[in-house]
Design a protein that fits this description.
Blueprint (H helix, E strand, L loop, with lengths): L1 H15 L17 E6 L4 E5 L5 E5 L8 H5 L2 H6 E2 L15 H10 L10 H11 L3 H24 L9 H6 L19 H6 L14 H19 L2 H10 L1 H10 L6 H4 L5 H19 L9 E2 L5 E6 L2 E3 H8 L3 H7 L7 E3 L5 E6 L3 H13 L15 E4 L7 E4 L2 E3 L6 H7 L4 H8 L11 E3 L2
Antiparallel strand pairs: 1-2, 2-3, 4-5, 6-9, 7-8, 10-11, 12-13
Length: 442
Amino acid sequence: MIRDIKEKTTCVVRRLFPFCLLAFLPLAAYGQIEVVDDNDEDDEIDVVDAQGNREEIDFPEAMSYNLDSLMGQYMSKTYMTYDNDCQMRDENPMYPKEVYIERLHRLPTVMEMPYNEVVQTCIDRYTGRLRRQVSWMLGASNFYMPIFEEALDAYQLPLELKYLPIIESALNPVAVSRAGAAGLWQFMLPTGKAYGLDVNSLVDERRDPLKASYAAAHYLSDLYKLFGDWNLVIAAYNCGPENINKAIRRAGGETDYWKIYPYLPRETRGYVPAFIAANYVMNYYCEHNICPMHSELPVKTDTVMVDRNVSFEQVATVCGLDMQMLRSLNPSYRRDVVPGNTALSPLRLPVTEVARFIDMQDSVYAANGNLQKRAVVEIPQEEVTVKKGKKRGRDRAKWVTVRRGDTLSNIARRNGTSVNNIRRLNGIRGNSIRAGKKLRVR
Protein backbone atom coordinates (compact mmCIF):
# COMPACT_ATOMS: atom_id res chain seq x y z
CA MET A 1 0.00 0.00 0.00
CA ILE A 2 2.75 2.44 0.99
CA ARG A 3 4.66 1.63 -2.21
CA ASP A 4 1.50 2.20 -4.26
CA ILE A 5 1.06 5.63 -2.66
CA LYS A 6 4.73 6.42 -3.30
CA GLU A 7 4.48 5.47 -6.98
CA LYS A 8 1.26 7.40 -7.56
CA THR A 9 2.60 10.48 -5.75
CA THR A 10 5.89 10.36 -7.68
CA CYS A 11 4.03 9.95 -10.95
CA VAL A 12 1.79 12.96 -10.24
CA VAL A 13 4.73 15.12 -9.12
CA ARG A 14 6.66 14.31 -12.29
CA ARG A 15 3.75 15.19 -14.53
CA LEU A 16 3.02 18.49 -12.72
CA PHE A 17 6.58 19.57 -11.98
CA PRO A 18 8.94 18.08 -14.58
CA PHE A 19 11.68 20.49 -13.52
CA CYS A 20 12.09 18.72 -10.16
CA LEU A 21 12.94 15.29 -11.60
CA LEU A 22 15.78 13.58 -9.77
CA ALA A 23 19.09 13.78 -11.59
CA PHE A 24 20.79 10.58 -12.70
CA LEU A 25 23.55 9.33 -14.95
CA PRO A 26 22.75 10.33 -18.55
CA LEU A 27 22.30 7.53 -21.02
CA ALA A 28 24.14 8.60 -24.17
CA ALA A 29 21.72 9.35 -26.98
CA TYR A 30 18.74 9.50 -24.64
CA GLY A 31 19.98 12.38 -22.58
CA GLN A 32 18.01 12.19 -19.34
CA ILE A 33 15.32 9.54 -19.08
CA GLU A 34 12.10 9.97 -17.18
CA VAL A 35 10.50 6.87 -15.73
CA VAL A 36 6.85 7.59 -16.36
CA ASP A 37 5.22 4.52 -14.93
CA ASP A 38 6.37 1.27 -13.40
CA ASN A 39 3.46 -0.94 -14.40
CA ASP A 40 3.61 -4.03 -12.19
CA GLU A 41 1.03 -5.83 -14.28
CA ASP A 42 2.99 -5.52 -17.54
CA ASP A 43 6.47 -6.31 -16.16
CA GLU A 44 7.78 -3.35 -18.13
CA ILE A 45 9.35 0.05 -17.45
CA ASP A 46 7.92 2.95 -19.44
CA VAL A 47 10.52 5.65 -20.10
CA VAL A 48 10.52 8.94 -21.99
CA ASP A 49 13.72 10.53 -23.29
CA ALA A 50 14.59 14.21 -23.43
CA GLN A 51 13.02 14.49 -26.89
CA GLY A 52 9.71 13.11 -25.63
CA ASN A 53 10.10 9.68 -27.26
CA ARG A 54 8.38 6.98 -25.24
CA GLU A 55 9.49 3.35 -25.05
CA GLU A 56 9.17 0.27 -22.90
CA ILE A 57 12.02 -1.65 -21.27
CA ASP A 58 11.44 -5.22 -20.11
CA PHE A 59 12.26 -6.39 -16.62
CA PRO A 60 14.20 -9.68 -16.62
CA GLU A 61 11.80 -12.62 -16.62
CA ALA A 62 12.85 -13.80 -13.13
CA MET A 63 11.55 -10.52 -11.69
CA SER A 64 8.02 -11.75 -12.36
CA TYR A 65 8.25 -15.20 -10.75
CA ASN A 66 5.53 -16.15 -8.30
CA LEU A 67 6.66 -16.69 -4.70
CA ASP A 68 4.45 -19.78 -4.41
CA SER A 69 6.50 -21.55 -7.10
CA LEU A 70 9.69 -20.84 -5.13
CA MET A 71 8.17 -21.91 -1.82
CA GLY A 72 6.97 -25.17 -3.38
CA GLN A 73 10.52 -26.46 -3.84
CA TYR A 74 11.71 -29.30 -1.63
CA MET A 75 14.62 -27.24 -0.25
CA SER A 76 12.23 -24.44 0.69
CA LYS A 77 9.72 -26.71 2.40
CA THR A 78 12.39 -28.68 4.23
CA TYR A 79 15.02 -26.15 5.24
CA MET A 80 13.45 -22.67 5.10
CA THR A 81 10.95 -20.96 7.39
CA TYR A 82 9.77 -17.41 7.96
CA ASP A 83 11.72 -15.65 10.69
CA ASN A 84 9.04 -15.00 13.31
CA ASP A 85 11.55 -13.16 15.50
CA CYS A 86 12.05 -10.42 12.92
CA GLN A 87 10.60 -7.16 14.30
CA MET A 88 10.89 -5.04 11.13
CA ARG A 89 7.75 -3.33 9.88
CA ASP A 90 6.58 -4.56 6.49
CA GLU A 91 7.02 -1.26 4.69
CA ASN A 92 9.53 0.09 2.23
CA PRO A 93 11.08 3.39 3.40
CA MET A 94 11.86 6.12 0.88
CA TYR A 95 15.33 7.67 0.60
CA PRO A 96 16.78 10.59 -1.37
CA LYS A 97 18.62 9.56 -4.50
CA GLU A 98 21.92 10.62 -2.91
CA VAL A 99 21.52 7.77 -0.39
CA TYR A 100 21.22 5.17 -3.17
CA ILE A 101 24.21 6.67 -5.00
CA GLU A 102 26.32 6.56 -1.85
CA ARG A 103 25.29 2.99 -0.96
CA LEU A 104 26.02 1.68 -4.44
CA HIS A 105 29.37 3.46 -4.43
CA ARG A 106 30.30 1.80 -1.12
CA LEU A 107 29.76 -1.74 -2.38
CA PRO A 108 33.10 -3.65 -2.40
CA THR A 109 32.98 -4.46 -6.11
CA VAL A 110 35.27 -4.47 -9.12
CA MET A 111 32.34 -3.74 -11.41
CA GLU A 112 30.92 -0.23 -11.41
CA MET A 113 27.50 0.19 -9.84
CA PRO A 114 26.19 3.52 -11.16
CA TYR A 115 22.82 5.04 -10.31
CA ASN A 116 20.11 6.24 -12.67
CA GLU A 117 16.33 6.24 -12.77
CA VAL A 118 16.08 2.82 -14.44
CA VAL A 119 18.30 1.36 -11.70
CA GLN A 120 16.07 3.11 -9.15
CA THR A 121 12.97 1.55 -10.69
CA CYS A 122 14.52 -1.92 -10.43
CA ILE A 123 15.50 -1.26 -6.80
CA ASP A 124 11.92 -0.11 -6.11
CA ARG A 125 10.58 -3.32 -7.62
CA TYR A 126 12.83 -5.55 -5.51
CA THR A 127 12.19 -3.62 -2.30
CA GLY A 128 8.47 -3.21 -3.04
CA ARG A 129 6.48 -5.74 -4.99
CA LEU A 130 9.20 -8.41 -4.81
CA ARG A 131 10.21 -7.94 -1.18
CA ARG A 132 8.93 -11.41 -0.16
CA GLN A 133 10.79 -12.99 -3.06
CA VAL A 134 13.90 -11.14 -1.85
CA SER A 135 13.30 -12.57 1.64
CA TRP A 136 13.17 -16.04 0.09
CA MET A 137 16.29 -15.46 -2.05
CA LEU A 138 18.24 -14.24 0.97
CA GLY A 139 17.43 -17.53 2.69
CA ALA A 140 18.14 -19.64 -0.41
CA SER A 141 21.45 -17.84 -0.96
CA ASN A 142 22.85 -19.88 1.95
CA PHE A 143 22.51 -22.96 -0.28
CA TYR A 144 23.87 -21.54 -3.51
CA MET A 145 26.20 -18.57 -2.94
CA PRO A 146 29.13 -20.72 -1.68
CA ILE A 147 28.92 -22.73 -4.93
CA PHE A 148 28.80 -19.57 -7.06
CA GLU A 149 31.70 -17.96 -5.22
CA GLU A 150 33.85 -21.08 -5.54
CA ALA A 151 33.30 -21.29 -9.31
CA LEU A 152 33.86 -17.56 -9.88
CA ASP A 153 37.01 -17.60 -7.75
CA ALA A 154 38.36 -20.55 -9.74
CA TYR A 155 38.28 -18.33 -12.85
CA GLN A 156 39.44 -15.22 -10.93
CA LEU A 157 36.22 -13.34 -11.70
CA PRO A 158 34.57 -10.57 -9.64
CA LEU A 159 32.55 -12.21 -6.87
CA GLU A 160 29.67 -9.76 -7.32
CA LEU A 161 28.76 -11.86 -10.37
CA LYS A 162 27.31 -14.32 -7.86
CA TYR A 163 24.16 -12.18 -7.98
CA LEU A 164 23.64 -12.86 -11.69
CA PRO A 165 21.39 -15.89 -10.95
CA ILE A 166 19.19 -13.55 -8.88
CA ILE A 167 18.02 -11.85 -12.06
CA GLU A 168 18.40 -14.97 -14.24
CA SER A 169 16.40 -17.52 -12.23
CA ALA A 170 15.51 -16.02 -8.82
CA LEU A 171 17.70 -18.90 -7.46
CA ASN A 172 15.33 -21.55 -8.81
CA PRO A 173 17.51 -24.48 -10.01
CA VAL A 174 14.76 -25.90 -12.24
CA ALA A 175 13.65 -22.59 -13.77
CA VAL A 176 12.93 -22.68 -17.51
CA SER A 177 12.46 -19.42 -19.41
CA ARG A 178 10.01 -18.76 -22.21
CA ALA A 179 12.94 -19.02 -24.63
CA GLY A 180 14.03 -22.42 -23.25
CA ALA A 181 16.96 -21.34 -21.06
CA ALA A 182 17.27 -23.60 -18.01
CA GLY A 183 18.75 -23.78 -14.53
CA LEU A 184 20.13 -21.29 -12.04
CA TRP A 185 22.31 -19.64 -14.70
CA GLN A 186 19.70 -19.95 -17.48
CA PHE A 187 21.87 -21.54 -20.16
CA MET A 188 20.41 -21.87 -23.62
CA LEU A 189 20.93 -25.39 -24.94
CA PRO A 190 23.68 -24.65 -27.54
CA THR A 191 25.69 -22.52 -25.09
CA GLY A 192 25.34 -25.11 -22.34
CA LYS A 193 26.63 -27.85 -24.63
CA ALA A 194 29.46 -25.61 -25.84
CA TYR A 195 30.61 -25.28 -22.23
CA GLY A 196 30.53 -28.98 -21.44
CA LEU A 197 27.02 -29.42 -20.04
CA ASP A 198 25.43 -32.69 -21.16
CA VAL A 199 21.84 -32.35 -22.39
CA ASN A 200 19.80 -35.24 -23.77
CA SER A 201 16.40 -36.85 -23.21
CA LEU A 202 17.32 -38.07 -19.71
CA VAL A 203 19.94 -35.58 -18.50
CA ASP A 204 20.06 -31.78 -18.37
CA GLU A 205 23.20 -30.62 -16.60
CA ARG A 206 22.13 -27.00 -17.00
CA ARG A 207 20.06 -27.72 -13.87
CA ASP A 208 23.03 -29.03 -11.89
CA PRO A 209 24.06 -26.13 -9.57
CA LEU A 210 27.72 -27.13 -9.39
CA LYS A 211 28.38 -28.01 -13.04
CA ALA A 212 26.35 -25.07 -14.35
CA SER A 213 28.18 -22.63 -12.05
CA TYR A 214 31.58 -23.67 -13.38
CA ALA A 215 30.27 -23.54 -16.95
CA ALA A 216 28.88 -20.05 -16.32
CA ALA A 217 32.19 -18.86 -14.84
CA HIS A 218 34.02 -20.21 -17.89
CA TYR A 219 31.58 -18.47 -20.24
CA LEU A 220 31.81 -15.16 -18.35
CA SER A 221 35.60 -15.40 -18.45
CA ASP A 222 35.51 -15.87 -22.23
CA LEU A 223 33.11 -12.95 -22.65
CA TYR A 224 35.47 -10.69 -20.69
CA LYS A 225 38.34 -11.69 -22.97
CA LEU A 226 36.12 -10.66 -25.87
CA PHE A 227 34.79 -7.32 -24.55
CA GLY A 228 37.06 -6.27 -21.68
CA ASP A 229 34.16 -4.50 -19.91
CA TRP A 230 32.03 -6.13 -17.24
CA ASN A 231 28.81 -4.29 -18.12
CA LEU A 232 29.16 -5.50 -21.70
CA VAL A 233 29.93 -8.99 -20.39
CA ILE A 234 26.72 -9.36 -18.43
CA ALA A 235 24.74 -7.70 -21.23
CA ALA A 236 26.24 -10.27 -23.63
CA TYR A 237 25.35 -13.02 -21.16
CA ASN A 238 21.74 -11.92 -21.56
CA CYS A 239 21.41 -11.36 -25.30
CA GLY A 240 24.52 -12.97 -26.80
CA PRO A 241 27.79 -11.41 -28.00
CA GLU A 242 26.43 -11.00 -31.54
CA ASN A 243 23.78 -8.52 -30.38
CA ILE A 244 26.38 -6.57 -28.39
CA ASN A 245 28.64 -6.33 -31.43
CA LYS A 246 25.71 -5.09 -33.54
CA ALA A 247 24.87 -2.45 -30.92
CA ILE A 248 28.52 -1.33 -30.83
CA ARG A 249 28.54 -0.91 -34.62
CA ARG A 250 25.27 1.05 -34.57
CA ALA A 251 26.68 3.30 -31.83
CA GLY A 252 29.65 4.18 -34.02
CA GLY A 253 32.12 1.90 -32.28
CA GLU A 254 31.31 2.96 -28.69
CA THR A 255 32.14 0.25 -26.14
CA ASP A 256 30.42 1.75 -23.10
CA TYR A 257 27.23 -0.11 -22.14
CA TRP A 258 25.40 3.14 -21.37
CA LYS A 259 26.32 4.58 -24.77
CA ILE A 260 25.17 1.54 -26.77
CA TYR A 261 22.11 1.26 -24.51
CA PRO A 262 19.58 2.59 -27.11
CA TYR A 263 20.66 -0.07 -29.60
CA LEU A 264 20.22 -3.07 -27.31
CA PRO A 265 17.24 -5.46 -27.13
CA ARG A 266 14.49 -4.36 -24.73
CA GLU A 267 15.24 -6.90 -22.00
CA THR A 268 18.97 -6.20 -22.14
CA ARG A 269 18.28 -2.52 -21.50
CA GLY A 270 16.68 -3.58 -18.23
CA TYR A 271 19.23 -6.31 -17.52
CA VAL A 272 22.27 -4.36 -16.30
CA PRO A 273 20.09 -2.00 -14.18
CA ALA A 274 18.42 -5.09 -12.68
CA PHE A 275 21.84 -6.60 -11.92
CA ILE A 276 22.89 -3.39 -10.14
CA ALA A 277 19.59 -3.44 -8.24
CA ALA A 278 20.15 -7.09 -7.24
CA ASN A 279 23.57 -6.20 -5.81
CA TYR A 280 21.95 -3.33 -3.94
CA VAL A 281 19.06 -5.28 -2.43
CA MET A 282 21.13 -8.32 -1.44
CA ASN A 283 23.41 -5.99 0.56
CA TYR A 284 21.00 -3.32 1.84
CA TYR A 285 17.84 -5.35 2.50
CA CYS A 286 17.82 -4.36 6.18
CA GLU A 287 17.49 -0.69 5.23
CA HIS A 288 14.25 -1.64 3.47
CA ASN A 289 12.81 -3.71 6.34
CA ILE A 290 13.23 -7.02 4.51
CA CYS A 291 13.74 -10.00 6.79
CA PRO A 292 15.65 -12.96 5.31
CA MET A 293 13.89 -16.27 5.62
CA HIS A 294 15.51 -18.50 8.20
CA SER A 295 17.36 -21.38 6.57
CA GLU A 296 19.05 -24.43 7.98
CA LEU A 297 21.97 -26.01 6.20
CA PRO A 298 20.82 -29.07 4.23
CA VAL A 299 21.95 -32.51 5.32
CA LYS A 300 25.37 -33.53 4.07
CA THR A 301 25.33 -35.52 0.87
CA ASP A 302 27.55 -37.94 -1.01
CA THR A 303 27.36 -39.64 -4.38
CA VAL A 304 27.25 -43.26 -5.45
CA MET A 305 28.06 -44.23 -9.02
CA VAL A 306 25.58 -46.50 -10.79
CA ASP A 307 26.39 -48.58 -13.85
CA ARG A 308 22.87 -49.34 -15.03
CA ASN A 309 19.63 -47.43 -15.49
CA VAL A 310 17.87 -46.86 -12.19
CA SER A 311 14.79 -44.77 -11.47
CA PHE A 312 14.18 -42.54 -8.47
CA GLU A 313 11.05 -44.60 -7.85
CA GLN A 314 13.12 -47.77 -7.47
CA VAL A 315 15.47 -46.07 -5.01
CA ALA A 316 12.63 -44.42 -3.09
CA THR A 317 10.59 -47.63 -2.83
CA VAL A 318 13.39 -50.02 -1.87
CA CYS A 319 15.36 -47.65 0.38
CA GLY A 320 12.38 -45.82 1.87
CA LEU A 321 13.43 -42.36 0.63
CA ASP A 322 11.40 -39.33 -0.39
CA MET A 323 10.96 -38.85 -4.16
CA GLN A 324 10.98 -35.06 -3.86
CA MET A 325 14.22 -35.23 -1.92
CA LEU A 326 15.82 -37.36 -4.65
CA ARG A 327 14.66 -34.89 -7.33
CA SER A 328 16.00 -31.96 -5.33
CA LEU A 329 19.42 -33.57 -4.84
CA ASN A 330 19.63 -34.70 -8.47
CA PRO A 331 18.02 -31.92 -10.55
CA SER A 332 19.91 -32.76 -13.73
CA TYR A 333 17.93 -36.00 -14.26
CA ARG A 334 14.93 -34.69 -16.13
CA ARG A 335 12.85 -37.92 -16.20
CA ASP A 336 13.64 -39.30 -12.75
CA VAL A 337 16.02 -41.84 -14.30
CA VAL A 338 19.78 -42.12 -13.73
CA PRO A 339 21.12 -43.37 -17.10
CA GLY A 340 23.85 -45.70 -15.83
CA ASN A 341 23.62 -47.84 -18.97
CA THR A 342 24.96 -44.93 -21.04
CA ALA A 343 27.85 -44.02 -18.74
CA LEU A 344 28.80 -44.42 -15.09
CA SER A 345 26.45 -41.88 -13.50
CA PRO A 346 26.33 -40.20 -10.07
CA LEU A 347 23.34 -40.47 -7.76
CA ARG A 348 23.45 -37.93 -4.92
CA LEU A 349 22.03 -39.10 -1.59
CA PRO A 350 22.05 -37.92 2.02
CA VAL A 351 25.30 -39.16 3.50
CA THR A 352 23.32 -41.18 6.04
CA GLU A 353 21.60 -43.12 3.23
CA VAL A 354 24.64 -44.03 1.13
CA ALA A 355 25.46 -47.18 3.11
CA ARG A 356 21.83 -48.34 2.92
CA PHE A 357 21.79 -47.90 -0.86
CA ILE A 358 25.04 -49.88 -1.22
CA ASP A 359 23.66 -52.67 0.97
CA MET A 360 20.37 -52.80 -0.96
CA GLN A 361 21.54 -51.97 -4.48
CA ASP A 362 20.88 -55.49 -5.80
CA SER A 363 17.26 -55.16 -4.67
CA VAL A 364 17.11 -51.67 -6.16
CA TYR A 365 18.34 -52.89 -9.53
CA ALA A 366 16.04 -55.93 -9.43
CA ALA A 367 13.02 -53.62 -9.11
CA ASN A 368 13.75 -52.03 -12.47
CA GLY A 369 10.16 -52.35 -13.77
CA ASN A 370 9.90 -51.08 -17.34
CA LEU A 371 13.32 -49.42 -17.50
CA GLN A 372 14.99 -52.20 -19.46
CA LYS A 373 15.00 -51.49 -23.19
CA ARG A 374 15.16 -54.43 -25.60
CA ALA A 375 18.47 -54.80 -27.40
CA VAL A 376 17.13 -57.29 -30.02
CA VAL A 377 13.60 -58.00 -31.28
CA GLU A 378 12.47 -60.86 -33.51
CA ILE A 379 10.44 -60.07 -36.64
CA PRO A 380 7.53 -62.50 -37.30
CA GLN A 381 7.93 -64.63 -40.43
CA GLU A 382 5.37 -62.72 -42.47
CA GLU A 383 5.43 -61.15 -45.88
CA VAL A 384 3.59 -57.94 -46.69
CA THR A 385 2.05 -58.22 -50.15
CA VAL A 386 0.37 -55.53 -52.22
CA LYS A 387 -2.10 -56.38 -54.96
CA LYS A 388 -3.54 -53.95 -57.50
CA GLY A 389 -6.88 -52.54 -56.47
CA LYS A 390 -6.67 -54.12 -53.01
CA LYS A 391 -5.54 -52.84 -49.63
CA ARG A 392 -2.20 -53.82 -48.18
CA GLY A 393 -2.58 -57.13 -46.38
CA ARG A 394 -0.50 -59.58 -44.40
CA ASP A 395 -0.13 -63.35 -45.18
CA ARG A 396 1.83 -65.92 -43.28
CA ALA A 397 4.73 -67.63 -45.09
CA LYS A 398 3.73 -71.00 -46.60
CA TRP A 399 6.07 -73.88 -47.35
CA VAL A 400 5.42 -77.09 -49.29
CA THR A 401 7.39 -80.30 -49.84
CA VAL A 402 8.14 -81.25 -53.46
CA ARG A 403 6.56 -84.57 -54.37
CA ARG A 404 7.90 -87.06 -56.89
CA GLY A 405 6.93 -85.91 -60.41
CA ASP A 406 6.18 -82.29 -59.32
CA THR A 407 7.10 -79.39 -61.56
CA LEU A 408 7.21 -75.72 -60.72
CA SER A 409 4.12 -75.21 -62.87
CA ASN A 410 1.86 -77.68 -61.06
CA ILE A 411 3.17 -76.56 -57.64
CA ALA A 412 2.31 -72.96 -58.61
CA ARG A 413 -1.21 -73.99 -59.78
CA ARG A 414 -1.94 -75.95 -56.57
CA ASN A 415 -0.94 -72.99 -54.39
CA GLY A 416 -2.42 -70.08 -56.35
CA THR A 417 0.86 -68.45 -57.23
CA SER A 418 3.23 -68.13 -60.18
CA VAL A 419 6.39 -69.93 -61.23
CA ASN A 420 8.31 -66.65 -61.16
CA ASN A 421 7.18 -65.96 -57.58
CA ILE A 422 8.36 -69.41 -56.45
CA ARG A 423 11.68 -68.85 -58.18
CA ARG A 424 12.07 -65.43 -56.49
CA LEU A 425 11.17 -66.70 -53.01
CA ASN A 426 13.53 -69.67 -53.23
CA GLY A 427 16.39 -68.31 -55.34
CA ILE A 428 15.78 -70.78 -58.17
CA ARG A 429 17.06 -69.84 -61.64
CA GLY A 430 15.86 -72.68 -63.85
CA ASN A 431 13.15 -75.32 -63.54
CA SER A 432 15.13 -78.02 -61.77
CA ILE A 433 13.69 -79.18 -58.42
CA ARG A 434 13.98 -82.46 -56.54
CA ALA A 435 11.55 -84.50 -54.53
CA GLY A 436 11.70 -83.97 -50.77
CA LYS A 437 12.92 -80.34 -51.00
CA LYS A 438 10.90 -77.67 -49.16
CA LEU A 439 9.85 -74.68 -51.22
CA ARG A 440 8.35 -71.43 -50.03
CA VAL A 441 5.28 -70.59 -52.11
CA ARG A 442 4.08 -67.46 -50.27
